[in-house]
Specification:
It is built from 15 helices and 11 strands. It is an alpha/beta fold and 488 residues long. It has a 7-stranded mixed β-sheet, with helices on both faces. The protein has a 4-stranded antiparallel β-sheet with strand order 8-9-11-10. It binds pyridoxal-5'-phosphate.
Length: 488
């Protein structure tokens, strides 16, 4: 065998030949490792819709099995991968699969998953044009496609973040920059000490990550004015107007496209008009709801989104791209860039038209996130995205229709999108604890997975249909399981 011959002769060849031989051995071993990894991934994916979606895990036992002392000596990477698969496979959450309805969780469309593998193999630093022209191009193209898909102004700048939390952070940092610059203050160089006042207006239903972003930006989580909402969680535009009229400081208004419980949309067009009259900044959190704008049937829900100054969204939720993939859009690209950029002499001069990804996100060195988004958009196309959004929404309605005739079942929200809130009334006893108990039983049953929430003081089961691979049969089987758990 060639390998044996080589190994016999390895000590009798030139150093250069020896090096080539070792490289070749390493490369053979790596190929074997990656093939085995591909096999493990394929096994996982093909069993995904048969495994329990969630299951109780003994965490200490898991730590013991997978952990122990840090190894003193390294081992063959193939052993490491086999060991990982053995330790973790049995406790994996099947959140990539078709019957995971918890939080707002997408899986991975095949093109995005495959692109994610390539992204790791390529190991590009997505930092700037020089570190990876390919990563810069992927982000630039995906950015243009998304701006077009959502009907945003062509000059909109786009950053690819780790998720919607950092998208909210980035959009609000641009807001902070723009409003303080107008007031004659350079917040990036001078900070907020002695800066002119800003007013921050949120709704009673703003997502927790808006507050996380405000807390990181020095704008204060509690130093906000809260606008009341209607029964579906939509901000009341008239109430917003009254509050805007009551403040003289420049205002950042945080609206929402897609309430995380009900899926409801704030009236963005009306809100945008109020904000424009006061020369404020409108930030919209559209983590999953923005994707409604990609469907002709649901686009009306986002009416006025093109007037937003900044929009935060996710690709790892409804676009079904692997984690971690968020996106932020800012209408005033100068404000966006000034709030995020860094500069150092060694970064080098790039061609004028080229993109430096670091200008649009909080990080420097980073994963080349554009590839997966590019692949998802290309793989699905406009029609595929619209179809995926519409299918999830109609499956959510199907779920609501199957559950609502059940004894004691109430659907608490108008099913306008992909979110459903369900409450279970026992014949006798407390509906809050009964609903929590039904959720617990469904989680334990393992056919599907969903989580509890509190909606306007009521405990509810929250169901989010966001996965590209969910079918009508998955919905029907899940609805049967839920009703079974409600009526034991
Ligand atoms: C999920 C979500 C976020 C946070 O997004 P991450 O990607 O988890 O950081 C923000 N807003 C809304 C409405 C969400 O649903």
């Amino acid at each position: 065998m060639a390998v044996l011959e080589r190994s016999r002769s390895i000590w009798f060849c030139t150093p250069w030949e020896r090096l080539r031989y070792l490289r070749r051995m390493l490369s053979d071993a790596r190929n074997a490792l990656l093939s085995r990894t591909q096999e493990l991934a394929a096994q996982f994916l093909s069993g995904l819709d048969q495994r329990p979606v969630g299951r109780p895990v003994d965490f200490d036992e898991l730590l013991d099995r997978a952990g122990g002392p840090m190894p003193a000596l390294g081992e063959d990477p193939l052993c490491t991968i086999e060991h990982m698969a053995r330790c973790f496979d049995a406790v994996l959450t099947a959140s990539a699969g078709p019957r995971y309805f918890g939080f707002v969780t997408g899986g991975s469309v095949p093109a995005a998953l495959a692109a994610d593998w390539l992204t790791s193999a390529w190991d590009q630093n997505g930092f700037n044009f020089f570190t990876s022209p390919a990563a810069a191009a992927a982000e630039e193209i995906a950015a243009r496609w998304l701006v077009e898909l959502f009907g945003l102004p062509r000059s909109t700048s786009v950053g690819f973040t780790t998720g919607c939390t950092m998208s909210n952070f980035t959009g609000l940092a641009a807001a902070r920059h723009a409003l303080l610059r107008k007031a004659g203050w350079d917040v990036e160089s001078q900070g907020l000490f002695e800066a002119p006042r800003l007013t921050v207006i949120v709704s009673e239903e703003s997502h927790v990550t808006i507050f996380a972003a405000l807390q990181m930006l020095g704008l204060g989580r509690d130093r906000v004015i809260r606008v009341p909402t209607d029964a579906q969680g939509r901000m009341l535009a008239s109430e917003l107007r009254a509050r805007l009229n009551g403040t003289t400081a420049p205002a950042i208004v945080c609206a929402q496209a897609g309430n995380v419980n009900t899926g409801a949309f704030d009236p963005i067009a009306e809100i945008a008009e109020c904000v424009r009259e006061k020369s404020g900044w409108l930030h919209v959190d559209g983590a999953f709801g923005l994707w409604a704008a990609a469907s002709p049937n649901y686009r009306a829900l986002t009416r006025g989104i093109e007037y937003a100054d900044s929009i935060a969204s996710d690709c790892h939720k409804w676009l079904n791209v692997p984690y971690d993939s968020g996106v932020v859009f800012v209408r005033d690209s100068n404000a966006h860039r000034t709030a995020m950029t860094l500069s150092a002499a060694y970064y080098g001069q790039r061609p004028d038209a080229a993109r430096d990804n670091y200008n649009w996100v909080p990080e420097a060195s980073r994963r080349a996130r554009g590839f997966t988004v590019y692949a998802a958009l290309r793989g699905l196309g406009r029609s595929g995205i619209a179809e995926m959004i519409e299918r999830c929404c109609s499956l959510a309605r199907r779920m609501a229709d199957r559950l609502s005739p059940g004894p004691g079942v109430t659907i608490l929200n108008e099913t306008v999108l992909n979110q459903i809130l369900v409450r279970f009334n026992p014949g006798t006893g407390d509906a809050d604890s009964h609903t929590a108990e039904v959720v617990r039983r469904v989680q334990e049953d393992g056919l599907c997975w969903l989580s509890p929430t509190t909606w306007h003081g009521l405990t509810a089961m929250r169901i989010s249909v966001s996965n590209w691979s969910t079918t009508e049969a998955d919905i029907d089987a899940s609805a049967d399981a839920i009703l079974r758990c409600a009526n034991v």
